[in-house]
Amino acid sequence: MYQTLLTTLENNIYTITINRPDKLNALNKMVMEELSRAIDEVYENDEIRSVIITGAGAKSFVAGADISEFVGLTVGEGKALAEKGQGIFMKIEECPKPVVAAVNGFALGGGCELAIACHFRIASDNATFGQPEVNLGLIPGYGGTQRLVQLIGKGRAIEMLLSANMIDANTALQYGLINYVVTQHELLEKAKSILLVINTKAPIAVAECIEAANAVYNESKNGFLVEIHGFGKCFGTEDMKEGTTAFLEKRKAEFKGI
Ligand code: COA
Question: Would you say the pTM of this structure is higher than 0.85?
């Protein structure tokens, strides 16, 4: 189905593995198009409740956009590339189902941007994060300048953006860029164990939490109003009736996503 991605669906968790290990999983045009299609599938397929994005091989999550495709681009083509990439990563950020990055090695440039477009991140202890675009005479183009500041604060983000320095997994943990550091062996299991818990929750409530949290960073939205709308919307769901009734009846709720 995909040439540059491996996908599996198990226990309602869809795992997307970017599969170009010989190029450290660099994001070329085909990877970006296939990633976009895979995310569309996440939106459309009711069997998918949550998502893990990771990279193939033991060395790299994603070592950036494919630099070989930058050669000879015009100003207009550069802008179009960034616009397209931002659109795809925005679709990940706005996905109503949780998307977790399981960072198994280098997360550089577009790889760091992909990780920070996900809802949260878990990394293996060999992971490194960086925005080395200034080494190429470039800046991040897939949302990195914005999301890095949002996640780790302006001072730390600007130092990373301007110096191109890489940070290791423990520093990323200290910065709040990632939520956990585990061994590479434990990485996917850790991501799955968290998602299995989230998958037992009411899907509409999960989606409304994501939308409200995202609104914090969207100047065109008032997050408090988004929260009011989401809170109210939940009262119209079967799952809210089930959740509150189950609590009062001292039993486990069975959510249906309606
Ligand atoms: N785009 C295209 N190809 C890439 C790539 C990228 N972003 N990152 C790695 N590759 C390719 C290399 O060209 C090499 O291909 P080759 O075997 O055909 O020569 C292969 O992946 C392995 O990379 P290599 O550089 O040999 O591995 P390394 O262990 O010596 O170094 C890195 C690893 C990550 C430090 C180094 O590959 C690197 O700096 N990559 C670019 C990172 C970057 O600037 N990303 C931002 C892009 S906007």
Answer: yes
